[in-house]
Amino acid sequence: MKKLLFGLMILGLTTQSFAQVTLPEFEVRATNYKYLNSVNPEEVADTDVRNLEEKVASFDLKGAAFYEEDKDLYSVQFFIPNGKILAAYDKDGTLLRTIEKFEDVILPTHITEAILTKFPNWVPTKDQYLVNYRESSDAARRLYKIKLQNEDKTIKVKIDAEGNFI
Known about the structure:
The chain is of the alpha+beta class. The chain has helices at about 1-20, 35-40, 45-55, 110-120; strands spanning about 75-80, 85-90, 95-105, 125-135, 140-150, 155-160. The chain is about 25% helix and about 35% strand. The chain has a 6-stranded antiparallel sheet, covered by helices on one side. The mean pLDDT is about 85.
């Protein structure tokens, strides 16, 4: 009986030693979280905009072909079919500021509700989503410019990210 228990114990210990898995090496990089938190809150509905902003935040400047150690400021442009971002990075890869412009994005629910509340029977036909980010400020400036149509009449409105008309 002792031999059986001893054998099971040895068998149990040896199978655990074979179960170890070696993970591949990976590099952890800090991204520009301040930028992401400022420009990409949960209410941004358009996934294309969110994805491009995440690429801007995680861009590896030092790994880029145009990187030079003696240069202090870099301007990098990012494009998708309905918009673009012009980003400025310092030599360490910290995102300093962006200018963003997107057209015909999916509007967040609270923006659509604000429009329907103030302008019933008006339909959004075109829109622009504009973002200005500066590292030195607490929050990014986010603005929607929307063209509304009611039969043959059109008007243009500006709404901030919180749904307030300007």
